Structures are given as structure tokens and as C-alpha cells.
Amino acid sequence: MGRFGDGATPRRPRKFARIAFVGFGLLFVLAGGACAKQDSPERGEPAVGGPYRSVPPSPDGIGKLYMGREISHVMGHRGAAWLERPDREQEERTDLLIQSLPLEPDDVVADIGAGTGYFSFPIAARVPDGEVLAVDIQPEMRALIEQRRIKLGVANVRSVLGNETDPGLAPASVDVILIVDAYHEFSHPREMGEAMVRALKPGGRLVLVEYRGEDPSVMIKPLHKMTEAQARKEMEALGLGWEETIGVLPVQHILVFRKP
Ligand SMILES: C[S@@+](CC[C@H](N)C(=O)[O-])C[C@H]1O[C@@H](n2cnc3c(N)ncnc32)[C@H](O)[C@@H]1O
Fold first, then answer.
1. Residue whose CA is closest, atom 10 of ligand 1?
2. Distance between Cα 171 and ligand 1 center (Å)
3. Residue 124 in 3-state DSSP?
4. pTM tops 0.70
5. Per-residue pLDDT reduced to its tens digit, 233-246
6. Spatial CA neighbour of 224 closest among 90, 94, 36
């Protein structure tokens, strides 16, 4: 007799839980992660001024337009389990993403909008003589990164609590900035962009990974996707030069930009 007895009854809850998990995951993807999105502090505030314009908020958006794109809500820390879902590697080929990054062993990498640190830790293994700065604005996400860092005993990941306008990185200190599935929810993309450019060393790269906005087969809500043209427009406005688009992933672009 096994731990759960010998009949079918005790197995049902596990089977049900598996089906429920897969069903929930599917729903989440179809809904563009909307169920884990939380209201931004910006919601409802007039978002006019500077490079921003106020618009009636769409269900996933904060009612703030930047270069023709409405900014989406921030994904709350309660969505952390979704970032760590077991099928993610296969669905998004996150292994290929990590392999594709233009990294040297001694690079300092800033993973901005790091969430749970899903990418920060495997990237740390690619920069054994460098460091990964895992930046997020949610203290709960930072706490998850810290727990993981201690559990894994990784010496070259440092968690950084940024704010909505500034990732808190020293000027000219970073070789590569990585932003995966986070830029579209930056509430102040212009200020964040300028601060990120300042933090890059001359010749440093910014790697932007977003769901492909021009691809209708990518079942993610529009505000959680970006077209290559929009991403290039926004990065070029910061003075970054487009270097290449790496097209190896099933649902996302990998866009590489360089600071002159
Ligand atoms: C959808 S999650 C993606 C997490 C991680 N990059 C991944 O792919 O697993 C987006 C993260 O970006 C963070 N974020 C949103 N705005 C930010 C900002 N201005 N600076 C840093 N992090 C931000 C959110 O708190 C959230 O943890």
C-alpha cells in the first residue's frame, strides 16, 4: 500500500490538482496574465506632462500613453508562482534565451524587473567572474530573490530594490541590462530608460525581451506585448542603437541595443 492508500480515491485530488494547475496556467496565458496584475499606484491619476499623455484606461492599462503605447499594470508578487511554473522553460524556451545573451564571464549584468530571479540565477552561472544585480520595485519579489540566493549559496547575485523612475544603479557600472517581460509595465519608461542608459558602460548592451506584438498567434493581451517597431522607437529615443534581433524564441523577441 502506498502513502495514499491503495484505492483510486486518494489519487483523485492529486489528479484534480494537476488538471486544475494546467487549466489555470492556460487561462492565465490566454488572459495575458491579467489575473495576477495589480493596480499600479498610477491608476486613476492624471498622467499628463512630459512625454506622457492621459487616456481612458483600458482594462489592462494604467491610462498613461508613452510614444503611442498604453502602459500596462504591474504584475503583482502574487503572480510569482506563475513566473516559476514548471512548463515555462518549454513554452518560452527560456534555456535558449539564456544561451543567446551576449555575455562575457566577467560581465556585470542588471536583470531589471527581475521578479523571482527566474533569469538572475542561471545568468549568474554564465558570469562566474562577474555579478548579477537583480532589480525589482516590489519588496516581496526582492525577498524571494534573497531567500533563493541564500538557499542556493550563490555569491554573485545581489538584489536591488529600485523605484518606478530609477533602478538605483551606479553610473557606467553595468555591461548588460536584461529586461524580460517587464518593460511594458514600467510606469515611467522615459525616466527608467534614461537611468538605465546612465548605468550602462559605454558600449554596453540593453537586451529587451517582450512577447511579439505583431504576431496574432501569441495569445497574450495587447498591452503585455510589444512590436519590434515600437520597442526600437522607444529605445532609439534614449540614444541607444539597435544592434540585432535574435529570433530563436517561440513567442518573444530578443532585441539587442547598444550604448554608443
Ligand atoms: C512579469 S514580471 C517578470 C519577471 C521576470 N523578468 C521574469 O521574466 O520572470 C515583471 C516584473 O517587473 C517589475 N517591475 C515593474 N516596473 C518596474 C520598474 N520600474 N523597475 C523595476 N522593476 C519593475 C515588477 O515588479 C515585476 O516583478
1. 182
2. 21
3. helix
4. yes
5. 999 999 999 999 99
6. 36
